[in-house]
């Protein structure tokens, strides 16, 4: 491995959200922040070098991404996900979550319902609610330690007052890589009921072990014609602060409506550095990405082995993608607020509380393990110290 993922990078003084928000969220400023989903690793050197080169140019006027930018994305989707994406399907967007909000304003009406899985990434229900949409949850089924779609529940609820379904693919926080059968059935039910699917695929390039990400739009023609897919290199290459994403929309009518609103709000033009970082990541970041995946796989293995050996009543879900671990604390016998208090006050750790991810998340905590191994082992020992006196109920 040529990349030193064990390097501890000091992020103090950089405005990193996970650090400057500690006091507000956890009541103290000395917790180790394992909540925000960005990693503690330096981005790939080709990305850093591309930013240096662009910075050295010295002129930072209005800039468009250019056809080569989209060609790079097209090649990446073809080589990594077996998806042949036409150039005209793609549009630069300033971020996944802002585009979800924009799409909701276009393709749903105030007072109408938005369907999401539960538990799920908080903005999936927070953004619709702030836009005066009603949120309906379809609870995921926990089977053999992993989440599965409740297709019968989806079939029932998608027949109701639903305009849009927002899909996390792969799933955040559970790390599930959805099967083709699940995605295909979802696509069929949504199309039957004229429900648009917005598929957030920001974790697609962080699939672990032998799992394979399946883009929603590839499972059927009706999936392609009834969806907006949102992709981004920001999670994979740790460039979230640069806000670069792409909307892929095969349906020309849906695409034209989205692009019209983007142009009306002048959101079609992004940050110069975002273009450079994304292009460099896709063109020259593959070797780094493979090393990252290997490092994350070992981090996941360490987490599972640690809890199994030391705290078997605390159960991490097996992640099929990403650097997030969804950890169940129900068997500790502690109420969620006591779990959180122990993590903060005794372990000195700041994790994401499960209740923030909606129904079904109450007895969970989400832990970011996209961190150097020394820090991970330290955090695990602190959890052990906080919970090893429990009498399991």
Automatic annotation (TrEMBL):
Top-level taxonomic group: Bacteria
Q: Which Pfam families match?
A: Aminotran_1_2 (PF00155)
Q: Does the keyword Transferase apply?
A: yes
Q: Does the keyword Protein transport apply?
A: no
> Which UniProt key words apply to this protein?
Aminotransferase, Lyase, Pyridoxal phosphate, Transferase
What Enzyme Commission number does this protein have? Answer: 4.4.1.13
InterPro entries per the record? Aminotransferase_I/II_large, C-S_lyase_PatB-like, Class-II_PLP-Dep_Aminotrans, PyrdxlP-dep_Trfase, PyrdxlP-dep_Trfase_major, PyrdxlP-dep_Trfase_small
Indicate what this protein is called per its UniProt record: cysteine-S-conjugate beta-lyase
Q: What is the lineage of its organism?
A: Bacteria, Pseudomonadati, Bacteroidota, Bacteroidia, Marinilabiliales
